[in-house]
Amino acid sequence: PGVPRHTNRLINEKSPYLLQHAHNPVDWYPWGQEAFDKAKKENKLIFLSVGYSPCHWCHVMEEESFKNQEIGEIMNKNFVCIKVDREERPDVDKVYMTFVQATSGGGGWPMSVWLTPDLKPFAGGTYFPPEDRVHRVGFRTVLLRIAEQWKENKDALLESSQKILEALLHLSEIRVQGQESPPPSKEVMATCFQQLSNSYDEDYGGFSKSPKFPTPVNLNFLFTYWALHRTTPEGAQALQMALHTLKMMAHGGIRDHVGQGFHRYSTDQHWHVPHFEKMLYDQGQLAATYSRAFQISGDEFFADITQDILLYVSRDLSDQAGGFYSAEDADSYPTAASGEKREGAFCVWAAEEIRALLPDPVEGATEGTTLGDVFMHHYGVKENGNVSPMQDPHQELKGKNVLIVRCSPELTAARFGLEPGQLGALLREGRRRLSAARAQRPRPHLDTKMLAAWNGLMISGFAQAGAALAEQEYVSRAAQAAAFLRRHLFDPASGRLLRSCYRGNDNTVEQSAVPIQGFLEDYVFVIQALFDLYEASLEQGWLEWALQLQHMQDKLFWDPKGFAYFSSEASDPSLLLRLKNDQDGAEPTANSVTVTNLLRAACYSGHMEWVEKAGQILAAFSERLQKIPITLPEMARATAVFHHTLKQVVICGDPQGEDTKEMLRCVHSIFSPNKVLMLADGDSAGFLYRQLPFLASLERKDGKATAYLCSNFACSLPVTSPQELRGMLCP
Hints:
Ssp411-like_TRX, Ssp411, SPT20 protein, 6-hairpin_glycosidase_sf
């Protein structure tokens, strides 16, 4: 170590990803006015590199090119070099990724883009090897060619960048055409179901052969489809597809059987060999999805997986102040003495390691059986490793095993002459010892940036799990995180959310010198979280804040001409395009989630213009929803919620009364995609009674906790028993 040879301006940043590049020989600038001014003043092109902390190929390109003295000199001489953490600035990432995808037919990270001094893109790609290879031009060659072009043909470059920008503007516009109304929900749902079932893998679950992603948006769509078609064969099929996928994922290597939580995605069809990074947004969405699976099926298996995910997040991704960290890297040092990191090193096992850790003979098993034998059989461990060379192009996992459940507990027990009941305790002990051994290994890098949007997704995960599993501690953890957001990622003076904050050196929470303002997704996921938290805790303060944020979201992002919300504000002159994302991917797109948010907001406030806005968003995306709803499964789901009108489930009762709690437990135990829950506690000065005057007319029948089912503020007859309430909620 000693003193680093180089230090650039990234040393003053807070993002762990940017700080990783602070000692490159490249003279990196953060995205901002200082870099833009330099490019204009010196009439230089900008080289923009966008990545994120757990991105494997980002690290490779840094090692090969950005740490290379000679390449660094070429970059510094010819370009103003800017580094962006895409998780801090999704707006910048999206503008230039739109360009890279449109011009190269593919995209990904690290993203490498060359811009004119006025920020217009004209050339780009993703990862470049440092030197020319047989099929790939090297980074050094590209840098020199582009520098040469700028010298020789500056005017042609500027002209082509202007044309590219105009084409991008046209290409990326999403707006309502004429007087469109929302698309017919029945057709959208049917088409989306058809498209999902056509791409479904019947053997292993999931919706592609390989790579396989845990797509909570698809599973949530299928749950809603089932809830609206319970008695049809298609409804049954939708449920089976979702539950089978969740089971296969939970058995697969994509789940960390020793350290809990889910890795990013599987490189193969069997959910076996993953890319090992763990992202907060996956844990938040999967916790919610597994708790819904438990709600619907009653199968404890799904509750166990939910608890596993939340254990991982509480232990490894939680800041002591209450927020949640963004991610853990895929790569780490195999041992403390290793010189280079390897993907998955923290999580994989050689067979002899497991044998040495689990040598005990097993009582009551076939003669000579050790705990290691049972464990290795159950988790598919092979003497010379269980990873096929096809899944391991860099030979990083040679001779290693990724644990995957290959047998049912009954089969494993029968193989060794055990009672099925004995197996659980043996496997638990095996996992405990492996976990203790793993704690001695160097940990992967932790990205301690805390993002409002992803914290929102995680709060929803804790709140929904707390309600569905009747676990109060999860609801409390969600409330602690919401209080953290309010304290560190919200500016009460302006009423606006901030995008990010960071863990400082002494474990305090820090903010950048110029805080990044919240984007549309920050508002949308936080508002969703606050509604989920209200339903789980019935604390009205969360509702009040959610509705304030919804008003602010309307003001900052709504497009009054073309309808729907822009992803970013109008006020940033460095952004060439204001975009509307049109794909539900690893995370749902903000416009999809906001449709349901708006409908919930209207139910809690009586502001019917929010229902109108929800319809206008569906109208703006109408063409896509009718042709390829599989790209927007969350928005397709929302068309059904819009069409069926949300039902207000009002419980009138004393929050502390046992009869009230019993009614609430009943509501929480039922999956119903078009219900909103509220508690009328009789406090006529409280927030809800002020918002919804009709609550004053609902009373407790015979002094007991009483439930009403209301739609458009007209209510059913009162019921006072959980059985009757269940009947009303599950027609």
